[in-house]
């Protein structure tokens, strides 16, 4: 006779419905695979009248979480409502009611990790959160257990499916940012507030969680230097392609001798690196470990079913006691580890791409070159394009690539350029990823 495990889901949106679908429709296959009978006993939603794609058995759907918390046959509560405050309150209530928790809530885990994990320890319960980072890819499990033999020196991830989808389709189909974003929302990739996707916040949440596990130090969200994709234009993507690069919103944690560096930024990835081939809503993570060397993980990072795949794996892991053992024994969670020591901002060294809007007048290029030279920046290539035929403004894009240089020097040069006669707007600056050599 299979063990029966009662499950309650908080939230019945894209992911909640996908989890319910698997639990209901694949129950027999899940039982055959795991020896567990996973019984969906409660789903809590705010709006009970909204049309949904999954039909639940009678008496499962309600608007009242207390019913789920007081049901002694529900052992696992799955939090899928997202957001911070209400989710925190519900997770605390579930733990206090003696439930183990599975969550996909990256915003909560990144903003209040110590509070959430210690609440679970105080209650003698555990929290599993594979689905909070990179959708279906089992990256938390892989980094925490599979790569336990390694000192992890660097993690570079494409962690936001919406941004990757936007960057891919803008270039492939030559369509505007706004049009592609609307598609990403329709396909269920984007957050309820898509600003969190495009301004880099969602990637920063995931990076703070992943990096904390990878480097076994507590990585605070406010130490992630974040830049989103909102200033990237189709021109930049096309220029990058001509230079042999693909633009990705890259979330990186790098261990250096002088401290850890956490960044989220649009980055030009050389075409030869596997991260460059990751397109559409897919996520991928390159991990550089002391024993393993380079390990690469790839899969769907957004959408209902891929995320549900990770949620169900956490449910099974919790049901068989693995999640609890990992939670208790493997010291890698921010409530047990010291704060990371961080590298001073601006010390990272990389090649950079610059696009500068310049009035096509005598001396313009000279002034740009002088601003770069004044910061000790060596130009690798420089191209001034013809102005568009119908342009009355005579503003031309000037594309510069630099030799490796500290970020602080680039930032100073960009600030100086905004005051130069003939430079129009703020130059766009995109670092170039150098892969494994970035690791130390
Ligand atoms: N909005 C997120 C993304 C969903 O686009 O990656 C998965 O966390």
Summed up, the domain count is 3
Overall 3D shape: elongated
CATH topology of the largest domain: Dihydrodipicolinate Reductase, domain 2
Low-confidence stretches: none
Distance N to C terminus: 53 Å
Main sheet summary? 6 strands, parallel
CATH architecture of the largest domain: 2-Layer Sandwich
Mean pLDDT: 94
Bound chemical compounds? L-homoserine
The level of helicity is 25-40%
Count of DSSP-assigned helices: 16
What does this structure look like?
With 440 residues, the protein is α/β, with parallel strands linked by helices. It folds into three domains: 3-132, NAD(P)-binding Rossmann-like Domain (Rossmann fold); 139-302, Dihydrodipicolinate Reductase, domain 2 (2-Layer Sandwich), CATH 3.30.360; 349-439, ACT domain (Alpha-Beta Plaits). The protein has 16 helices and 18 strands. The strands form four sheets. The protein has a six-stranded parallel sheet with strand order 3-2-1-4-5-6. The radius of gyration is 24 Å and the shape is elongated. The termini are far apart. The mean pLDDT is 94. The structure holds L-homoserine. L-homoserine (HSE) binds at residues 135, 160-162, 189-191, 197, 202, 301-302. L-homoserine binds next to helix 8.
């Amino acid at each position: 006779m299979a063990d029966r495990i009662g499950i309650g889901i908080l939230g019945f949106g894209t992911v909640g419905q996908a989890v319910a679908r698997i639990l209901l429709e694949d129950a027999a296959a899940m039982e055959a695979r795991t020896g567990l009978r996973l019984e969906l006993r409660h789903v809590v939603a705010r709006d009970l009248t909204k049309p949904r794609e999954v039909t639940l058995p009678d008496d499962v759907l309600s608007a009242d979480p207390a019913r789920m918390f007081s049901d002694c046959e529900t052992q696992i509560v799955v939090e899928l409502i997202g957001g911070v405050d209400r989710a925190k309150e519900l997770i605390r209530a579930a733990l206090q009611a003696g439930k183990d928790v599975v969550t996909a809530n990256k915003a909560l885990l990144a903003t209040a990790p110590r509070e959430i994990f210690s609440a679970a320890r105080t209650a003698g319960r555990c929290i599993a959160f594979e689905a909070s980072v990179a959708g279906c890819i089992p990256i938390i499990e892989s980094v925490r257990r599979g790569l336990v033999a390694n000192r992890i020196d660097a993690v570079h991830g494409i962690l936001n499916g919406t941004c990757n989808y936007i960057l891919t389709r803008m270039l492939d189909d030559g369509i505007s940012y706004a049009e592609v974003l609307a598609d990403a929302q329709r396909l269920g990739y984007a957050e309820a507030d898509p600003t969190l996707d495009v301004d880099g916040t969602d990637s920063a949440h995931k990076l703070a969680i992943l990096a904390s596990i990878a480097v076994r130090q507590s990585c605070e969200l406010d130490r992630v230097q974040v830049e989103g994709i909102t200033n990237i234009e189709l021109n930049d993507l096309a220029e990058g392609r001509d230079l042999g690069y693909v633009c990705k919103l890259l979330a990186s944690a790098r261990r250096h001798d002088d401290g850890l560096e956490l960044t989220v930024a649009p980055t030009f990835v050389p075409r030869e690196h596997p991260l460059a081939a990751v397109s559409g809503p897919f996520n991928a993570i390159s991990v550089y470990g002391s024993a393993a060397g380079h390990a690469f993980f790839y899969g769907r990072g957004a959408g209902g079913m891929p995320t549900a795949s990770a949620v169900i794996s956490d449910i099974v892991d919790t049901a068989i006691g693995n999640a609890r053992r990992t939670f208790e024994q493997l010291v890698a969670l921010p409530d047990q580890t010291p704060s990371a020591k961080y590298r001073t901002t601006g010390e990272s060294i990389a090649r950079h791409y610059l696009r500068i809007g310049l009035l096509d007048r005598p001396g313009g290029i000279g002034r740009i070159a002088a601003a770069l030279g004044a910061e000790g920046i060596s130009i690798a290539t420089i191209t001034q394009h013809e102005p568009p035929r119908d342009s009355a403004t005579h503003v031309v894009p000037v594309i510069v690539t630099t030799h490796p240089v500290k970020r602080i020097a680039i930032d100073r040069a960009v600030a100086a350029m905004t005051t130069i006669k003939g430079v129009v707007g703020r130059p766009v600056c995109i670092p170039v990823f150098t892969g494994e050599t970035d690791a130390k």
